[in-house]
Each structure stands twice: as C-alpha cells, then as structure tokens.
Amino acid sequence: MPEPAAAVASDPRAVPFVVADGIAKAYGGVQALKGVSLSLYPGEVHGLVGANGAGKSTLIRVLAGLAQPDAGRILYDGRPVAIPTPHAAGALGMNFIHQELAFVPSMSVVQNIMLGLPKKSRLGFIDWRAVAREVAPVAAKVGITAPLFANVKGLSTAENWLINICRALIRRARLIVMDEPTASLSAGEGETLFAIVEELARSGVAILYVSHRLDEVLRLCHRVTAFRDGRSIATIDKPDLTRAALVEAIVGRQVERLVKTTTGPSTGPAVLSVRGLARHPRVKGVGFDLRRGEVLGIGGLVGAGRTELARLIYGADSTDAGSMTLEGRPFAPRSPAAAVKAGLGLVPEERRAEGLLLTKSVAFNLQLANLTRIVHGRALPLINGGRRTSSSLKIVRDLGIKTSSVDTPVGRLSGGNQQKVVIGRWLLGGPKVLILDEPTRGVDVGARGEIHRLIRDLAAEGMAVLVISSEPDELPDLCDRVLVMAEGRIVRELEGEAVSRNAIIEASYAEPVLAGVTS
Amino acid sequence: MSATLTPNRRLSPGAKAALGFFARYATILGLLAMIGAFAVLSPRAFPTVNNFTNVLNQASLAMIIAAGLTLAVVVGELDLSIGFAASLHGILVTGLIVSSKLPIPLAVVIVLAAGALIGLVNGVIVTKIRVNSVIATLGVGTILTGLAFAYSAGVPIVAGVPEAFLQLSLGRWLFGIPNNIVVVVVVVGGLWVLVERTALGQEIQAVGGNPAAARLAGIDVDRIKVLGFMISGTCAALTGILLASRLGSGTASAADTYLLTAFAAVFLGSATLRDGEFHVLGTLIGALIIAFGFNGLNIFGAPTFSQYVLQGAILIVAVGLSSLGRSIAES
Asked: How far is the C-alpha of B222 from the C-alpha of B204, rounded, in Å?
C-alpha cells in the first residue's frame, strides 16, 4: 500500500474505494506506465496531474477496462478485481467523463441520460414520462436547466457535462473520473461545475479530477497525485498542496517563468485593420488594429465569438458586413488559401481535427503551407528532398520539437510537440499576421512556457500576432494588449499594466451575457 | 485471445507487428505465391515470356482506369462513373473516326478532353453543389450510359474502323513491347510522380487525409478535388479509346465491368506497402493480382462464373485488408 489512509476522506477510517497498485502498461515499444499507485477514497476529490505523456490517460484506460495492465493490481473495496471490459467498470460503479463527450445528437436529454439503461415501460413501450419523472430530481440536483425532452444538439458544452454527470448519478456511480472537465468551459460554466463536484464529494462519491489547470486543482482537490514519465511521483495532501509543489512534482525541475520582454505598447503602424466585421449570429461588428511586432490577445468566455472572428479574418467563413485592410490595402479573403497568399497564418483551436494529418510525417505537416519553397523551381515543380529535410530539421531544432526524425508520423508526438509542428508550419513562410487559437490547450506546463517564448520571439522579429485564449492566466503572460469579447462584440481594451487576469474575467462579464447555464 | 482483429485490444507488441507486416505485405506475398503456384501447376503454359507479356497487355486497360480512379480516392472521393464513361468514350472515338471522318489523333484528343470534361462535371457537382460523390458519379454515369445508347442508337459501330486505329492498341513498339504497356508505363509513372514527388501531389494527399486541416493550411480543397475527378475522367477516356481499338468497335456497355476491376485494384493497392492509404504504385500491384488471377483461371479452363466470384471476393478481401492496415496505423 503506497500511502496511509488520508485524513481528508470524509471518514478517516474509510477503506479506499479503489486502489491502483503498481500498474504497468506498455504500448508497442513504449512503456506508458512503469508502475503507478493511487488510492481513491469515498467523498474525496482527488486530482491527477502530469505532463502530456506522463501516463494519466493510460491509467484511466486501465480503470475503464479499455486496456489491460501488464503488471500490478486493482483493489476494489479492498479486494483484487479484474476489469476486462468497459461494461465491467460500469458494473463496479465507475463512470468516466471524457473531453470529447459521447452523445447521440438526434436524441433528447432524457434519452441520452438513460442510454443503455433499463427503462420503465408500459405494454412493451418505453414510458418516457415515467422515466422523466425519475430523472427529473437528479437532473435538478446537478443543475440541468434545459427541458428533459429538448434535443441535445443545441446545448452548450457545459450542459453536456451536466448531462454526463446526471447519467453517472442515475447509474449510482461511486467513482466519477473527469478528464480535463473545464477545457471547453468558460469561467462561469466552470464555477457551476465546481459547485457540483463539491456537492458530489459531500454525498460520498469519489472524484478523480484530471486537469492541466493547476488553479482549479489547487482549489478543488483534497489530495493530488502527480505522474511523471509513467510513475506516480507524489501524492500531496491538502495542507502541503501548493502550486510550487505541484509544478515541481510534474516537471521535476524548476520551470522558468516567461519574463515578458516588455517593449511597451507597440506604436508601430497597423498591419491589419478590422472595421465592423460581422457574421450572424456570433460576430456582431468588431473593429481593431493589429500592429507590427505586437502580441494582441483576445479574451472572453467560450461562445463570445472569438474563434468565429478568427475564421472571418482568415477567410474560412464569409462575412455579412465589415471591411479589412492589410498593410493599407483592402483585404477581403474569399478562402483560407487567399488569406495565406496575402500573408496570414492560422493555428486552429482543434489541433488534431483542423491542424494536422496525423498519419503523415512531421516533415509533411511542416511543409504543407510552404510547398512552393521546397520544389526545384517553377519550371520543374518536383519536391527537392534535400531541401525539404533540411528546412524541416531547422524548424524541429529551432522549436525544440521532440521527435525521432522528421519522417515520424506526427500522430506519435505528444500534444505539445504536435502544437509546435502546427506553429512551425507558419515560420517557414514568415507570415505578416499569425493568429493562434488556444495555442496551449492540452499542452503540458513545460511546453506551454516554450510556446509562449516562441510567440514573443516571433513578435520581436516583427510579426503581428493575435492570440485567442480562454485561460485567464495565459493572456497577461503573453500579450501587450488584450481585447475582451462578449456576445460578439469587443467590450473592453486592456493595455500595459491594466492587462491582468482579474480585469479580463471581470470584462468578460461586463455585458449582460450568460445565456444558457447560470449559477 | 479473442477472435476480434481490432489490433489495440489485448495483442502483444509482437502479434501487432506481425499483423501489421501481414496487412502491408499480404498482397505482394499473395501475388508471388499465386505466380509460383501457377508456374508449378502449369509449367508449360504459364511461366513464359509470351504469357506474361499477354497478361500485362490484357491488364493494361484496367491499370490505366484504376490508376486514374486512384487520384479520385486519394482526394477522398469515389468515382463510380468511370466504367460507363469508358464505354461512352469507346463509342465516341469510333463514331468520330468512322462517321465524322476525323483524323485519328484529333478524335483521340477530343475524346480525352471529353473525359476531362466529365471529370470536371463530377467535381463541380461534388464540391459546389455538395452532392455526395457516390450519388453524383452514379447519376452522371447513368446519364452517360443513356448518351452512349443515344449516340450509337444501340448498335455497335463496327464497320469501317480503320486499321491504323486498331494498331493503336494492337501494335508493338521497340523490342516488341505492346503499345498498351508503353502507355501504362507513361500514365502510371506520370501519376506516381505527380502524387509522390510534386508540390501539387502533397496538396492532393493532404486533401484526402484531412480536408479541414488542408483548407486551413491554405490549400484550395475544392480545386484539388475537381482535379482528382478530371484525372480519373481522363484515364477512363484513355481506357475507352484503347478498348475500342482492341475490340475494333464502339459498343455500349463494353467497358462497364472495368468499374469493379478498378475498385478492386485500388483497394488491394491501399493494403499494399502502406497502412490503408491509397497510392498509385499499390493500385498497379492490385491490378496485377487480378490480372494474374484471371489468367490462371483461364489457363486451367475455369468456367466464366468463377471470374465473377473471384472478383467479388478479391474486392471484399481488399477492403478488409485496407481497413485492417488503417486501424493498425491509428492504434
């Protein structure tokens, strides 16, 4: 047994509900878990932190019955158990809520909650009214405000989370594993979720809370286990739980905090001017100037229209109204191809879905926007293999991308390194304007610092950079100036000293916003 | 071990590697084993230079149309119009030569252009009107069959086909290499260079692999897809022309069966050397497997129905191998 019974569990003498003991697991040649141990007590919120590739997801897969451990054992109420299938995990009262929520989009809220469960029926037909009467109190408890018979398609990510939690409770869950729960929630929606997590813990459910966001972990968790390189490094109890302790456990070395090379608010000429840009229903008239050499942040709640704005600037969607100029000339791209030609680059929010071809090599993904530069010439448009490799290697070195070679499929890289590949794609061409949408989402602490430094360097070299982020801590670290959007409009401009986490959060709520989940 | 082939579940790394090797090389090993078996069973008729040349010559038309289809599937679409299109093109080229008295080179160029045009129509319907490519090309193919009957009034164009046109596919080149094989080398080689070695080819691969990512990387996805259809259409036209030359006539429905052969070759090819990815060289190997299989059946005097059974079975095995390769690559 790796650690003594923790004092934080609701009952100090409680038997741990689930214990993972010395779990090891290899995939192919990669030893994903080298022996991790973890105890979960009823009524505790247990944080699980670690860099990408530390083994968090693998442990979850083992607990969920999606992977079988090569070594180690799992104790359930003190007895060893095998979890051969996801079904077996469910029968033990273990529920898993993943980042990508699984729903049947054409079904109603109550149908999704009851998916796969026996339902009340009359004369062989499911009696949905009776089912709904049963579900309603649980739904109210977790704060679902949508009607039970509404279609899930139009609901926010936050409400999807609530539906999943409700599903877990209906199944009498004793353990709920939440994987990056706030990754796509706004600050306000996050608050709602935290309140529910605390309530669940009080009622005796064990919560395993997996997150990169240390602020949340510090605030919410009673105990936190940190993984590094497939081992459980430390389990830290509440009194000793500090940010520095967690970071040290995760990284194993002191992280250098990015010192912003404050050049002061750039007063250079505007590279990109946006005036009255609109597209129904998310963007309602946005205007700003982006200057040479500045990092301009766009903050706000999820759904404020920030990604949609980026897509309009980039020509990925058509505009209803408004105009833009690029270096003084009218700029109205009809497609991303036209925007790229004019000197723009985009690092999209969904790295795997929109940024990369996962089965293709690092070099293939890096060179995708630079093909004209690696051919022998205009007359002979054959790829010059040597130039392709050398220019890819340069980017790999400059950005510190960890890969065995430029021919490795990019899908085998960790999240942070994948993100560097998407960013690196745009460095070869040297665009005038680079837009980064959530550049460090799902990226570990170390890689996050490196990506931030890279963005600052690009701006210092004269690139105009636009950064969209939902993480309140990210923009103050990174930006000279921050625009806060709410309900499709810019509601606040923050500059220099005024750029702070609290100012951004406060401004996000400045307008009468918050459709959907309220707390 | 359970009976499932899903490779990431309870398979040792060694078993997975073996499965991966099997998925990549099964087609090539199968081809070699088949050639070896036929050579042993029929040592006098099968392993001769004459028979091999004959097989390659027979397979050449399927190789051309399948290589063209490969471009359509690489950009992520299906083209079901190619067989019907090739039939129409065969009638068209004989009609232009016999009835309209056009010089042969001009007739060939016109028909190739018509093939590209049909591809353009397919591409525009799929990319601009957003009709699913299966439906769009099936619809266009059916229309083409109608046009073929209309143009020929249902009667094969046989009389008056000049000898020079027949020589197009029957003739031989240097060292007695059949013209058809020369055409295959040029077409397949050209398409291989295009896809694997040019900047445009990288864009073509990207569009098929992840259209959303390709678009945001600044690639004109619609243009690339239309190009894929146009190459597919042009290759179908070339096949139709050579088939008319070989048959000495323009006959409605003559090339329809090439559709299935081409798909079998393309999917066999995607299971060859790469993990379920379509590529030109693989298609070539796929077409060879089918050609040698049929040749063997012929030599042993197998009844006609067995060819259909073989072709259907090959198609299913090919797609199975292809998706096995993909699931290994993704795990």
From this structure: 11
Greater confidence (A230 vs A105) lies with: A230
Q: Could you give the C-alpha distances from B276 to A306, B134, B204, B271, in angstroms and in order?
A: 38, 20, 16, 5
Our count of domains for chain B comes to: 1
B210 chain-A contacts, CB cut-off 8 A? 353, 356-358
Give the per-residue pLDDT at B21. Answer: 78
A372 contacts on B by Cβ (under 8 Å): 199
Nearest-by-Cβ selection for B202 from A26, A68, A383: A383
For residue A69, CA distances in Å to A39, A65, A72, A75 come to: 17, 10, 7, 13
- Number of Cβ atoms within 10 Å of the Cβ of B171: 13
Residue A257, pLDDT above cutoff 90: no
Q: Residue B195 maps to which CATH number?
A: 1.10.3470
- Note whether A243 and A343 are same-domain residues: no
**pTM score:** 0.75
d(CA A310, CA A306): 6
For residue A281, whether the previous peptide bond is cis, meaning omega lies within 30 degrees of 0, is yes
Contact B210 A356 (CB under 8 A): yes
CA of B179 vs chain A CAs: smallest distance (Å): 28
Binary contact (B212, A353; C-beta < 8 A): yes
Find the mean pLDDT for residues A252-270: 56
A31-70 confidence digits (pLDDT tens): 789 999 999 999 999 999 887 668 888 899 899 998 899 9
Q: Quick check: is B55 in a domain?
A: yes
A322 and A430, same domain (yes or no): yes
Task: Return the pLDDT at B331.
Answer: 60
* CATH number for the domain harbouring residue A51: 3.40.50.300
Report the alpha-carbon distance of residue A256 to residue A270 in Å, rounded: 32
Over chain B (331 residues), what is each successive 10-residue block's mean pLDDT? Answer: 42 72 82 90 88 91 97 96 96 94 96 98 96 96 94 84 90 87 95 94 94 94 97 98 93 90 92 86 93 87 85 84 74 60
CB contact under 8 A, B212 and A360: no
Closest residue in chain B to residue A31, using alpha carbons only:
B13
Query: Looking at beta carbons, which residues of chain A come within 8 Å of B202?
Result: 364, 367-368, 371, 383
Q: Which two tokens stand for residue A313?
A: 């600037």
The number of folded domains in chain A is 2
Note the pLDDT of residue A443. 79
Domain residues for the domain of A438 are 271-508
Q: Which residues of B touch A341 (CB under 8 A)?
A: 218
Nearest to B13 among A29, A335, A348 (CB): A29
Given a cut of 90, whether residue A183 has pLDDT beyond it is: no
Same-domain check for residues A281 and A418: yes
Query: Is residue B4 in a domain?
Result: no
- Nearest Cα of chain A lies from the Cα of B123 at a distance, in angstroms, of 18
Query: What stretches of A16-149 adopt beta strand conformation (E)?
Result: 18-27, 30-40, 45-50, 71-76, 79-81, 94-97, 121-122, 125-126
Contact B212 A354 (CB under 8 A): yes
Whether the Cβ atoms of residue B284 and residue B195 lie closer than 8 Å to each other: no
Residue A286 CB burial class (10 angstroms; 0-12, 13-18, ≥19):
buried
Is A354 in the same domain as A230?
no
Q: How many Å apart are CA A329 and CA B111, to the nearest integer? A: 46
Q: Are residues A332 and A461 in the same domain?
A: yes
Same domain, residue pair A313 and A234: no
**Has residue A516 got a pLDDT over 70?**
no
Tell me, what's the pLDDT at B322?
79
Given an 8 Å threshold on Cβ–Cβ distance, is A359 in contact with B10? no
In a domain, A341, yes or no: yes
CA B270 to CA B109: how far, in whole Å?
31
Nearest to A46 by CA among A254, A237, A199: A237
ipTM: 0.85
